[in-house]
Structure formats: C-alpha cells, structure tokens
Structure prediction request, 239 residues.
Amino acid sequence: MAKPLIGITTSQFLTQGGIMAGTKRQFVSDAYIQAILSAGGVPVLLPIIAEQEAIAEQIAAVDGLLLSGGGDIQPQIFGEEPRRELGTVLPERDTHELELVKSALASDKPVMGICRGCQLLNVALGGSIDQHLAEATLQHDQQSPGDYAGHTVILEQNSRLAGLWGDTVMTNSFHHQAIKEAAPGLRITARAKDGVIEAVEHEAAPFAVGVQWHPELMIYKNLAMLALFIAFVNTAKRK
Prediction:
C-alpha cells in the first residue's frame, strides 16, 4: 500500500539582500516534514497560490492536509478590526488556506491544524479568534526551547485527544492568540488551566483536529506526541 501524501501549508518572505533581493520565497519548518515522515506519511509542500482551480488540484493530489503554524490571521475575516497587538499578517496565505480547508473537508480528507493552523481551521468554519491574550493568567509564549513541555492542557472526555493521552497532557506553548468562539461543528476538546482553548475537533469529519501547541517540536523527547501525527496519517491512508 502506498504511503499517504500529506500536504503541508507554507509561508513566504521577501529576500532582503544579494542579487535576489525582493524576490518571494516560500518555506516551512523542517519539524513538520520530519513529523509526517516519522508517522509514516510522505510530506508534500503546498505553495501559496491564488488560482481556485489549482488550489482544488492541490487538495486532489494529497490524502491529508496539515495546516502549519505562522503569523496572525486577518481579523476582518472573522468580522473584527485589528487590535494594536496584532502581528504580521499575510492575506494571500489566509485566502489560500481557507480554500484548502473547505476543499479538504468537502472531500472528507483529514485535516490537522497546528497553532495558527488550529485558529485557521476555526475561522474557516465560522469561528473567531482572540487577537491578543491580554486576560490570560498563564504563560502562553514560553521562552524555553520547543521540546520543553511546561504547559498543562486539560482534555475533554470522549475526545480523540483524550483517547491518545488521557485526562491531561503536557505541551509547549508559543502563541499570543487563541480561539475565542468555536465554529459551528467544532467541539472544544482541550483547555489550559486559565481557560484558554487549546484544541478543537470536528464533530462530523473523519479527522479534523486543531491543537494550539506545537507537537512537531516535541516528538523526539516525548514520543507520545507522535501518536497524534500517526492517527492523522493513518486516517489519510489510501483506500
């Protein structure tokens, strides 16, 4: 049986120096690539594009969609004006990923969202984002390395995540935004001890899970985190 192809979303930047200054480059953290390989999948990078037909073909070509982390999402998408704490936004990435999510879910292909990707999944389905966690009492933007898990996350019973890890799981944390209102059809399945939403799961899709932390940075020191990627990749296996 062929290994499942997992599409991974990318970000972009402008080259600052040299003869290529001003040119766009697209990229993704190698940690996502290694996590998919470790889970038994084949990573395929999905560059940011605008053509609707080509976006549909991107989803048609893969067996699952991994929404990677990155910058903030345009608040206008969920009906708000930008707060002054809003970070860098990339409108073309937002538009591309919203279309990818809708196409993947319509095709019953599994979707996994990490950090920004968790928020993007929620926004794509009609939810909203807290633009800045001013009221959070816990640290959500740790200064320690990514493989350090110092953040307790409480899991909801009878959820996919609880099936993997039980009642709680220790995670890393690198975000200043989080889901504010979950979209229709998304169940909140994890929270930090200060109430911040840490994970959502789609109630009807075969697999659509968003987590606010970065499990791809933890898989070598905490093999339990690899279980989430394995569940995702196994769902994506070709019939």
